[in-house]
Amino acid sequence: MKCRHCRAALTLPLLDLGSAPPSNAYLSATELAAPEVWFPLRLLVCQQCWLVQTQDYAGRDLLFASDYAYYSSFSSSWLAHARSYVQDIRERFALDANSLVVEVASNDGYLLQYVQSAGVPCYGIEPTAGTAAAARAKGIEVVEQFFGVVLAESLSSQGRQADLMIANNVLAHVPDINDFVAGFSGLLKPHGVATFEFPHLLRTVQGCQFDTAYHEHYSYLSLTAVQGILAANGLSVFDVSELPTHGGSLRVFAQRLDSGCHAVQSAVQDLLLHEQQQGIRSAAFYAGFQGQAVRIKHDLLRFLLQARREGKTVGAYGAAAKGNTLLNFAGIRPDLLPYVVDANPAKQGRYLPGSRILIVETAHLLAHRPDYVLILPWNLKAEVVQQLHEVKAWGGSFVTAVPTLQVDVA
Q1: In 10 A of CB 382, how many CB atoms?
Q2: Pick from 141, 148, 202: nearest CA to 171
């Protein structure tokens, strides 16, 4: 396989999780009688541009189908993050009724609803039908297509160039990262700004967040890699912020290469230097990741087996993609984990891919009162603990597995 950005041969492994089905391919009851398609799940490191990437097996049309079940608005903390972003970005770049904001991968309108309510014209670009319909129900215009150069040129020719383009947690999800980024330089106005948010590879490796690896994540990103990718496709980075979301993320600010409207902030060079000092351009930085993933797998299995021996009950919360990676790598099935709670009605009554664990509503967990609640989206632990405060009242405990097994005893 060659690097999806620079085309160099990939020889340095980072992670091998065996095989797994697409992490958002939730199953109906009737589909349980049919076989599932599993793909190898391996991550490789490009030693030329330092882009970490999933070995290609599954195309985007399979992974991001019309029944794609991830809806951003079901996380209150993520909605708060989006609301804060809109307030900050409006003030910083003086966005008003004469501006135009475009969000790529706008999902269910979780962010653009705040842009719209502020009186700033906007539209979203979103290829999955269900989430696009949810956004339209909020009165948000959505272009229901995958984004790239062709769509950017079409929209630009219609006079729909943007003052601000937003790409939250989508840069990792595109198989042709060059075409995707080049579309931004084509759709931005000369003075326009693009912001990209994504989990920071440095935090992923240092925190052993291996469960963020799944087929929908084609790329795993550092500022080192992203700066090069953007520059090769007509954009320059002028600022960067570190964020707590998703276990540690970056927000990168970019402008057209032919613009130069915005001065480059010192944070850019500071973070590039920090990444270099941490070894992100060296093979040694990636060497221990596989072993840490195996340790987490074994620790979780030991915990679940011990709970079973002791007659303790365990339920899970969050039918999230990262949870599916963890459960399938560990080989966990309903005998050890009979159900997982999720607030999204689109997932309830369906089954997790691979593990085939039933997804239920919160009332199911409250009725069964398990001794332990395994929080699969560990990045949302504080939010989940607050939502499920009744668990502590009946003497139950919350458990997270990444980066180390932690049991919060009541």
Answers
A1: 10
A2: 148
